[in-house]
Amino acid sequence: MGTRKLNIPAFRDEIDPADYSASQAVHTAEKFTSVVVVRWGRVGGFTFRTGDRLVLSDQEADQGLLLLRPRGYGWPMLGRRDGAWLMAEPGGVRAAARRWRITARVVGVERSLGRSVMDQGDWFVAVEARGGTSRERLQQAGLSGGPLSHRDVDALCHRAGRFVDEGKGLVAIGVALSAEDALRMVRDCPAGRLRMPPDVPSKTLEASTELADVLEGPWALPPVTPVRRNEGVGTDREETRYDAPAAVEGCESTATAQLPLFHRSRRNRAS
């Protein structure tokens, strides 16, 4: 059985948060800091990307995805509570309470509209105007929500990013797996940002484990024949060279061949 590689995200405290974090009352774990992603990684079915900002809440801080801070030197990490234990994500290993403490619950992830890269699957999108921008202006620009695929969400966010950069208006976008969650995400989302929940089913990202069908090409494979060595020495023993095709053991088809890298005879090894 093969091993599964864990892509562990890394986080750091952002010393100087943007102006919108105060004006839009974005919850942060500390008074004047916010947490941003400095190395991408996957937790459950969600992909944290470099530059993402975590939206934190001190309500229900013992449920869902949690932000853990070290007691002493170190960077924060994500985890969950399992009874009396803290489990670090994405590895699912125990985190010592003497070393780690729960700071807040991660209720959302924000990223710039121009950096929208949604994971595969179908999503619900909620679009809201900010500032003095009217809904009619958003509709004229083709910025409307609803159920969309991940490619359509990316295209919508990129159009919205150009809409904001060109000074045509202000817009915020919320994305989730249901219409209710999308509206909840966009409610406090600042202008020019995309907000989504961090907890999504893993089925939206898990790759298929089924074996692919191998199609045979139109070419003909060379016949598999043993190579006689030391013909002039007077021996009748047949040996297969390590650089010659050999039939796969246990396979009835003569068209299937593999290249053995090691031979039972030491002098015929490839290395």
Oligomeric state, counting identical vs distinct chains: single chain
Low-confidence stretches: 16-32, 203-210
What percent strand? 25-35%
Number-wise, the strands total 18
Percent of residues in helices comes to 10-25%
Task: Give the overall average pLDDT.
Answer: 77
Could you spell the SSE succession in H and E letters?
A: EHEEEEEEEEEEHEHEHEEEEE
Radius of gyration: 28 Å
Helical/strand content category: alpha+beta
Major β-sheet profile: 10 strands, mixed
* Structural shape: flat
Please, how many domains? 3
Output the number of helix runs.
4
Q: Ends: how far apart?
A: 27 Å
Topology (elements, then pairings):
Elements: E1 10-14, H1 20-23, E2 34-39, E3 41-43, E4 46-48, E5 53-57, E6 66-70, E7 77-82, E8 85-88, E9 93-95, E10 100-112, E11 122-130, H2 135-140, E12 146-149, H3 150-165, E13 170-176, H4 179-187, E14 193-196, E15 227-228, E16 238-239, E17 246-247, E18 257-258
Parallel strand pairs: 13-14
Antiparallel strand pairs: 1-2, 3-4, 5-10, 6-7, 6-10, 7-8, 8-9, 10-14, 11-12, 11-13, 15-16, 17-18
Describe the structure.
The protein is 13% helix and 31% strand. With 271 residues, it is of the alpha+beta class. The protein has 3 domains: 1-111; 116-200; 219-271, no CATH class. Strands 5, 6, 7, 8, 9, 10, 11, 12, 13 and 14 form a 10-stranded mixed β-sheet that branches. Strands 1-2 form a two-stranded antiparallel ribbon. A two-stranded antiparallel ribbon has the order 3-4. The longest helix is centred in the middle third of the chain and has 16 residues, at 150-165.
